[in-house]
UniProtKB/TrEMBL annotation:
Intracellular or extracellular location(s): Membrane
Membrane topology: Multi-pass membrane protein
Alphabetical list of InterPro entries matching this protein: MFS_trans_sf, TMEM180
Keyword list, A-Z: Membrane, Transmembrane, Transmembrane helix
Protein name (database record): Transmembrane protein 180
Any single Gene Ontology cellular-component annotation: membrane
Classification via PANTHER family: TRANSMEMBRANE PROTEIN 180
Transmembrane region(s): 16-38, 161-183, 189-209, 261-286, 298-317, 329-348, 467-485
Length: 516
C-alpha cells in the first residue's frame, strides 16, 4: 500500500485543508470586486446611467442562465444509461472537477484584472467584463460546490470540508482591509499593482492545489493497484442501473417531482432575497438610522464586522451542525431572526446601540445561514442520486438548478425594497439623485458606505420608514422560511437512510477524508 502511505504522510495537507484553501483563492478576488467595481465604472470611467443599467440587464440574464447551462455541460454524461459508455467512477468524477478548476481558476483570476484598466468604451467594457468574470466564477463555484458532494457523503465529513472553507474565506476577507491602503480614485496605479498581485496569488493557488488533489486521486487509479482495491477505499462503484439516456426535459420532469428540492428552493429564494436586501440597503440604514448618532469610523467598523463575522461565526454554526444536524441549526436561525426582529420592533428606532447590534446581527445571521445551505444542497444531491437511480451523482447540475431558481431573489430585493420605502414614507427614491446614487452603490458594493444624502430628506418620516423596512422584511422572511422549512423532510432518519442507500449503491463504507 505504497500509495496509501504516500497520501497519509503528515507533511502532505489533508484533502479537507486543500479543498478549503480553494475558497481563499476565490474570496480574495471576489471581495475586492464587490467593493470597487461599481465605483470604478461610475466615478472613474464615467459610465452613463443608460449604459450602466443596460449592462446590468445583460448581466442579469447571463447570471441566471449560466449556472444550469454549465451544470448541464458538466454532468450530462452522468445522467446517461450505463450502456451508453464506459463506467464512471467517483475518482474520475473528482478528477474531472479538479481539471475544470485548474483551467478555469487562473482564467477567473485573469478576468478579474479586466475591470481595473480602461481598454474599451465603458458601455462595452462594463457588460463584457461582468459576463466574463461571472462566467468563470460560475464554473469555479459550481465545481467547487460539487466537490463537496463528491468528496464525502457523511454529514461529519461534509461539515469538516465546509469548516475549512469558512476558515479560508475569512482569511480571504483580509484582502478588503488591505485594499484600503491602495485605493485612490485619482491614481489607480498602486491599486492595479495590488490587484495583479492578488490575481497572481489566486491563479497560482488554483493551479497548485488542483494539481496536488489531482495527483492524490490519480494515485488511487494506478493500474498496478487494481481498480477494485482503489474503489473500495473511496467507497465507490456503480450506482443503480438506469433504463435509458436522459434529455433536459426528462431531467426537469424528475426535478419537478423532487418535493424536497422544491421546498428547499422556495426557502432558499427567500434567503437569497433577504441576503441581497441586507446588502442593498445596508448603507441606507446606516445613513438614516445611525449617521447622527455614530461617527463615520464607527460606521466603517460596523460594515467591516458585518463583512467578516459571518465567516467566523459559521465555524460555530458548523460545530452545532455536527451535534444537532444542519436542518435543526437552520430552523433555529430562522426562529432567532424572527425573535430578534420582533424585539427590535417593540423597542423602537430610538435605541442606537440596539440598532447597531440588530443591523450587524441581522446581516451576520442571514449570511451565516446562506453558508450552511451548501450542506443541504449536498443532501439533495444524495436524494436525487437514490430516487432517480443515477449512475453517478449529478452534483454540479443540481447546484446549478438551485441557483437558477433562487437567482431572481437578487433582482427582487432592490425592487421590493424601493417599493416598501415608498409605501412607508411616500418617498420615491428615483426622484432624488443623491439617495438614488447611494442605493446604487450599496446594491453592488454593500461594503462601501455611500456619501450622505441631503439632510432635508432625512426627516422623521424617512427615518421611521427605514426602521420599519429594517424590521418588517426579516419578520416576513422568517415566517415564509419557517413555513417552507417545515415541509422539508430530508433530515433525521430519512436523511440517514438516503445516505446509507447511496453508500450501499456505491459498495462500501466511506473513507475518512484525511486518508483520501
Amino acid at each position: 500500500m505504497a500509495a496509501w502511505r504516500w497520501v497519509c504522510r503528515p507533511e502532505v495537507p489533508s484533502t479537507s485543508v486543500l479543498y478549503g484553501s480553494l475558497a481563499l483563492f476565490v474570496s480574495i478576488l471576489h471581495n475586492v470586486f464587490l467593493l470597487y467595481y461599481v465605483d470604478t465604472f461610475v466615478s472613474i470611467y464615467k459610465i452613463d446611467k443608460l449604459s450602466f443599467w443596460g449592462g446590468q440587464a445583460v448581466f442579469l440574464v447571463w447570471n441566471s442562465l449560466n449556472d444550469p447551462l454549465f451544470g448541464w455541460l458538466s454532468d450530462r454524461s452522468f445522467l446517461s444509461s450505463p450502456g451508453a459508455g464506459s463506467p464512471i467512477t467517483s475518482p474520475e468524477v473528482v478528477l474531472k472537477r479538479l481539471g475544470a478548476l485548474s483551467k478555469n481558476g487562473p482564467l477567473f483570476a485573469l478576468s478579474f484584472l479586466g475591470f481595473w484598466v480602461a481598454w474599451a468604451r465603458p458601455a462595452l467594457q462594463f457588460p463584457v467584463c461582468l459576463c466574463l468574470y461571472d462566467g468563470f466564477l460560475t464554473v469555479v463555484d459550481l465545481n467547487h460546490g460539487a466537490l463537496l458532494a463528491d468528496l464525502a457523503v457523511s454529514a461529519a465529513d461534509r461539515t469538516r470540508l465546509n469548516f475549512h472553507c469558512s476558515v479560508f474565506s475569512a482569511a480571504g476577507s483580509l484582502s478588503v482591509f488591505l485594499s484600503y491602503c491602495f485605493w485612490d480614485k485619482e491614481d489607480l496605479s498602486r491599486f492595479r499593482v495590488f490587484c495583479v498581485a492578488l490575481a497572481g496569488l489566486s491563479a497560482l493557488g488554483f493551479a497548485a492545489v488542483s494539481r496536488l488533489l489531482s495527483r492524490r486521486f490519480r494515485n488511487l487509479l494506478q493500474p498496478g493497484r487494481g481498480e477494485a482495491a482503489g474503489l473500495r477505499e473511496l467507497s465507490v462503484g456503480q450506482a443503480l442501473p438506469q433504463d435509458q439516456a436522459f434529455t433536459v426535459g426528462q431531467y426537469l420532469r424528475q426535478l419537478s417531482k423532487h418535493k424536497n428540492f422544491m421546498w428547499f428552493a422556495a426557502m432558499n429564494l427567500v434567503q437569497v432575497f433577504h441576503c441581497h436586501f441586507n446588502s442593498n440597503f445596508f448603507p441606507l440604514f446606516l445613513e438614516h438610522l445611525l449617521s447622527d448618532s455614530i461617527s463615520s469610523s464607527a460606521g466603517s467598523l460596523l460594515l467591516g464586522v458585518s463583512y467578516m463575522a459571518p465567516h467566523l461565526n459559521n465555524l460555530y454554526f458548523l460545530s452545532l451542525s455536527r451535534r444537532y444536524g444542519v436542518y435543526q441549526v437552520i430552523q433555529w436561525l430562522f426562529m432567532l431572526k424572527l425573535v430578534l426582529s420582533c424585539a427590535m420592533l417593540l423597542a423602537g428606532p430610538d435605541h442606537v446601540y440596539l440598532l447597531c447590534v440588530f443591523i450587524a446581527s441581522n446581516r451576520v445571521f442571514t449570511e451565516g445561514t446562506c453558508k450552511l445551505l451548501n450542506l443541504v444542497t449536498c443532501d439533495l444531491v444524495d436524494e436525487d442520486f437514490v430516487l432517480n437511480r443515477r449512475r453517478q451523482a449529478a452534483s454540479a447540475l443540481l447546484f446549478g438548478m438551485v441557483a437558477l431558481v433562487t437567482k431572481p431573489g437578487q433582482t427582487l430585493a432592490p425592487l421590493v425594497g424601493t417599493w416598501l420605502l415608498c409605501f412607508y414614507t411616500g418617498y420615491d427614491i428615483f426622484e432624488r439623485g443623491p439617495l438614488r446614487q447611494a442605493l446604487l452603490v450599496g446594491e453592488a458594493a454593500p461594503e462601501a458606505a455611500p456619501e450622505a444624502g441631503p439632510r432635508e430628506a432625512d426627516g422623521a418620516p424617512l427615518r421611521l420608514g427605514c426602521f420599519y423596512m429594517l424590521v418588517a422584511v426579516p419578520i416576513m422572511c422568517a415566517l415564509l422560511q419557517l413555513a417552507a422549512w417545515s415541509r422539508f423532510t430530508l433530515h433525521g432518519r430519512k436523511l440517514q437512510d438516503i445516505k446509507s442507500r447511496r453508500q450501499g449503491a456505491q459498495r462500501g463504507p466511506l473513507a475518512e477524508l484525511e486518508a483520501v
